[in-house]
Amino acid sequence: MEYLAIFPPLVGFLMAFLFGRQMGDKGAQLITCSGVIIAAFVSCVLFVQVIFGHDGHGDPRTVHLMQWMASGDFKINWALRVDQLAVVMMCVVNIVSSCVHVYSVGYMSHDKCKARFMAYLSLFTFAMLMLVTADNLVQLFFGWEGVGVASYLLIGFWNHKDSANAAAIKAFVVNRVGDFGLALGIFAAFVVFGTVQFDAMFEMAASKADATMTFFGQDFHAITVIALLLFMGAMGKSAQLGLHTWLPDAMEGPTPVSALIHAATMVTAGVFLVARMSPVFEYAPNALLVVTLVGAATAFVAATIGMTQFDIKRVIAYSTMSQLGYMFFALGVSAYGAAIFHLMTHAFFKALLFLGAGSVIHAMSNEQDMRKMGGIWKKIPTTYVLMWIGSLALAGMPFFAGYYSKDIILEAAYADHTWFGELAYYLGIAAAVMTAFYSARLLFMTFHGKPRADKHTMDHVHESPPTMLTPLMILGTGALFAGYLFYDKFVGHHQIWQDSIFVLPENDTVEAAHHVPYWVKKLPIVAGALGLVLGWVFYLKFVGLPSVFTKVFKPLHTLFYNKWYFDEIYNAVFVKPAAAFGRVFWATDRNVVDGLGPDGVAKTSRGFGAMLSKFQTGYVFQYAFVMIIGLIAIISWFFFKLTNGQG
Amino acid sequence: MNNEAMTSFDFSSLGAILPELFLAVAGLVLLVAGVLRGDKSTNFIGGAVIWCLGIAAFILIGLEWDRVSILNGMFVMDPFAGFMKVLVIGGLIASVALSMQYLHQDYIARFEYPILVLFSGIGMMLMISAHDMLALYVGLELQSLALYVLASIRRDHIKSAESGMKYFVLGAISSGILLFGISLLYGYAGTTNFAILGDTLSHNMSLGVIIGLVFVLAGVAFKISAVPFHMWTPDVYEGAPASVTALFAIVPKVAAMALLIRLLFEPFAALQSEWFQIIWFIALASMVLGAFAGLAQNNIKRLMAYSSIGNMGYALIGVAASGAMGITAVIVYLAIYMAMTAGVFGVILCMRRDGNAVENIDDLAGLSKNAPKLAYILAILMFSMAGIPPLAGFFGKFLIFQSAVESGLYTLAILGIISSVVAAYYYLRIIKVMFFDEPADKFDAEISLSRKLVIGLSVIGVIFFIVNPSPLIDQSRIAASSLFSGLDDVATPDTAENNTQ
After folding, report:
1. Is residue A242 classed as helix, strand or coil in its secondary structure?
2. Cα–Cα distance between B56 and A202 in angstroms, integer?
3. How far, CA to CA in Å, does A93 sit from each of A52, A240, A255, A409, A430?
4. Among A80, A630, B221, B309, which is 20 to 30 Å from A331 by CA?
């Protein structure tokens, strides 16, 4: 059963990757799609079993596959840990992945390398599943790097485009920084706990709450160090402020990739990691503080940038980053359930928005700039309606999925009753206004107003084929109902998490969130509504207003529009000095090390060889001479030895 | 030697020499047939020679390999001789099979060619089984004379004639040296028989004996082209027709090495501390020269000459390590070397452009584009030659160096590894030229079935040796240990580096 939820994507990947050419495009699409659809179906069944099994008490299980490595005390297994947390992630990953697989069949219909694309998608799905079902940190790291590789391959899928290659490399390199932290975190965990197996670590966490580790002659609180290092990995993968610069560029990949990897699943791996490690994070209050602050700052900054961008995919990308910020500050205030809840609803509506955007781009003959769209809502009504659903869910309008999850996060932040919790609450409210604003902006610029595209493109605007619309509808259903249906189970009074998430009793903000003042509960709705109205005023009612505003708030707009100059600062601080260093070392290596070492030795050897072959004159008498000399030399040697040695 | 022994032949014991007798008779019959039918019959005779060699191999394998000494102690048969002869016959078959097409292409399709190969083969087999200095000399000369003729078989070609001439003159000098050594030994020991010689030398060791030893070893070292008796090799390899070069590279050295081993461990066993110094030196000099001088070569046949000098150096490490383990390593090494060389020369023989043989390394440029199969085969063989695991060449070198280290020959082992690193350059360079250089013109595509078969077997052997190495290694061990059993007076060699001091 568990195997069927994990391995069909792997089979799909192997078949499509190795035999894609023999099977043809149709065969590859069929096998990869059916692989993930089987996995999605089975994981839904597992969801019911794991969460409602044992008369509703939950039935988590761990399937041992085989031993991976063993070295002294260090033992690591391949295992499938299917507990409540993992099964939620499995459902999200498999369902979204199925939708994206099917959607890709339509979206990539004009591409030459369909089999390769489908294979990578399946590879990604498998790696993500390994990540969420890991029962130790090393297997998690395997999945973590696996999704990183798949992401790299897919961002750079159109490898004839320089920008795509650059974006792929950027994503990989920036993630290396985070992964470096993650790896160190795993090492530190092994040092402190003597194991990287989750259950064993979690049992020990309480007893190690006061442990310290010495580093550079200073004592640090061990659990905080581990938590912060792991969080560094999470920051890289989940594009939190500081390590976020790769995410917008990653939009160079095909749109289904953006939907699956850079919105719904891979970027939430960091959220999953922190939630999975909740028994450790709970004993590191300072680390939680950092998580909250980084998350809140990300939510705010990303939203400000999102308001100013014109590329439809980049707007959604910054929105993703902003929503990830929400999830992280939820984690930071110990509202793990709320974070996972938002992760799930977000997966639905953000994948919906991306795929919807893909449908728009498809309709507009690959145009991504919103300034060249407008007035197309009558021509693609289905996409239009679905985009509205996604946007309203994103803006947190009542009864859409995002409403439930975003509200509980903000309430939990407020209920934390700490200075950083409240700060996060207000930053979150501000971000909520902006979120609603840029959602409205996106909708109005894209679908309403006067057409700004040329006539040829406009004539060509068409609704997408059913293979693309069906997944959109499934995701739309999720975006409509997922919040209402699962509110009670995820963050309400009948929580399903049991042992898979651990919260110290004094930190239980999800419970406290139900008892916050009335205005705290209602403010997010007001914020969302305000944002939508502002968007309507700016981009539909008084179309001239935005340009006036940008002039009045020029410095601010410039800052936002240029993404707070993160790329430029990194370029100046890290990339250029590193390149300069590299050139210095390269010159040293080439001139000094190579000159004396490899090249020098090689040159001498060749000279020696040339000298030796000069002996080979071709004259027989010289050859005979060498032979005789050799003979005489040997005899002389013995003569000398015997007469001296014995005499 | 008493008269009775001279006159009463025990014909039943002639069984041990049956393969050689069969080949000799067959060779004469084929010679007559060739004379009657002329050069038209070359193909037929070539095929017949291969068949005869095959039959001889069957007879050989069917024989009892227990140690017998016949013809008044002139001829000995033991597992070592048997196994080495099997290797030699295999090498002869491979070289004839490789060369038949080439003979026609290079207008040297004379019926004598395969027959000469056959006669040189008989010479080699006699060398391997020789148990008397005179038998040794006769076998050696039979093989050499045939080879001199083969080297210059393309009489109208100046290089071929020149190489035959050089080989002959230098070979004659080396024969003189050898004979002089034998006569010195006879003068001091009063016998040419290996068994009696060994017995005598064990309690009569004078400077004259040692000088005789040096001369004899110098004569044999010429045949295996060990430094400083190697000078003929590059010129002859380059000048002789490629098919003859293939023969030179594949077979005679194996026979000469077997002869050397028998000499060292039977008659000269008592002189081990002396001959060890000589072997140590020529092994080292051969490895180093083979590695470094090869770097400067552009002609692939010449390159293979230096490669063979170097490889004989490695094999000699095993001899210097002595003991059953060292000899086992030598035999395995030679067998693998033969297989690889057969494949490499198979490819070299395919290097023809517009009907002419080309033999520069640059001519291989871009072979991976023009003839990918050939390029990959040569690449695998080159990797194996360079000693890169998991190919067979690695295991050959590994066993040799292992035996050296176990005998305490650290200097040889270290210098051997260094020179194999240096030599790897020229093997890998060929791969680089084939795969990364701008393609040159295509080679002629026509390759005969027999050549394909040899190349194919060689590559398969090289690749799959790792799957089941034990048959070869076990057989070699049996062969090697037969040299040491029943010779109790040969102390288990505890050679150490300080012997050379």
Report:
1. coil
2. 76
3. 20, 21, 17, 22, 30
4. A80
Which of B275, B295, B299 best tests the A interface by mutation, with the highest count of A CBs <10 A?
A: B295
Chain-chain contact of A610 with B296 (C-beta, under 8 angstroms) = yes
* A612 interaction partners in chain B (CB closer than 8 Å): 289, 292-293, 296
Alpha carbon distance A497, A336 (integer Å): 10
For residues A463-487, give the mean pLDDT: 89
Amino acid found at B400:
I
Comparing CB atoms, the residue among A605, A613, A615 nearest residue B422 is A605
Which three-class secondary structure state does DSSP give residue B132? strand
A8 cis-preceded (ω within 30 degrees of 0):
no
- For A463, other C-beta atoms within 10 Å of its C-beta total 16
Cα separation, A87 vs A81, whole angstroms: 9
CA distance B318 to B326: 4
Q: Which structure tokens are listed for A104?
A: 């890709």
ipTM of the complex: 0.83
Cβ of B308 under 8 Å from any chain A Cβ? no
pLDDT digit string (tens) for A533-550?
A: 998 888 888 888 888 888
Cβ-defined contact of B232 to A609 (cutoff 8 Å): no
The SS3 assignment for A427 reads helix
pLDDT tens-digit readout, A282-306: 999 999 999 999 999 999 999 999 9
Helix (H, G, I), strand (E, B) or coil at B130: strand
How far CA B411 is from CA of B408, B414, B416, in Å, comes to: 9, 5, 8
Residues of chain A positioned with their CB less than 8 A from the CB of B169? 620, 624
> Tokens at residue A503, please?
């919260």
Residues of chain B short of pLDDT 50, as ranges, are: 1-7, 487-501
Residue numbers in B near A634 (CB within 8 A): 214, 218, 278, 281
Average pLDDT over residues A90-112: 91
Touching check for A598 and chain B: CB below 8 Å? no
Segment B486-489 long-range contacts (CB within 8 Å, at least 24 positions apart): B486/B67, B487/B198, B487/B265, B487/B266, B487/B269, B489/B198, B489/B199, B489/B202, B489/B269, B489/B270
Both tokens of A584, joined, read 């210095």
Sorted by sequence, the CB contacts under 8 Å of residue A403 that are 6+ apart come out as A393, A396, A397, A483, A525
Q: Which residue has the tokens 């990949």?
A: A253
- Per-residue confidence (pLDDT) for residue B6, from 0 to 100: 47
- Best mutation target, B292, B297, B303, B432, to test chain A (most A CBs within 10 A): B292
A640 touches chain B (CB under 8 A): no
In whole angstroms, give the CA distance from residue B450 to residue B195: 43
- Smallest CA-to-CA distance from A273 within A215, A189, A346 is with A189
Q: Does A596 touch chain B (CB under 8 A)?
A: no
Residue appearing with tokens 């040692």: B210
pLDDT digits (tens, 9 = 90+) for B182-233: 999 999 888 899 988 888 888 877 888 889 999 999 999 999 999 889 989 9
> Closest Cα partner for A509 from A420, A430, A393, A398?
A420
Q: CB A624 to CB B215 under 8 A?
A: no
The single residue listed with the structure tokens 């295509």 is B442
Substitution target in A603, A638, A644 with the highest count of B β-carbons within 10 Å is A638
Q: How many CB pairs under 8 A join A and B?
A: 81
**Nearest residue in chain B measured CA to CA from A606:** B295
Looking up tokens 């090494």 gives B333
Closest alpha carbon to A189 in A145, A136, A132, A127 = A136
Confidence of residue A342 (pLDDT cuts 50, 70, 90): very high
Bridge partners, B70 (sequence order) = B75
Residue B306 CB contacts under 8 Å (≥ 6 apart), including other chains: B233, B234, B289, B290, B291, B293, B294, B297
Establish whether the linkage from the previous residue to A505 is cis, with ω within 30° of 0: no
User: What Å distances lie between residue B410 and B320, B332, B465, CA to CA?
Assistant: 12, 21, 27
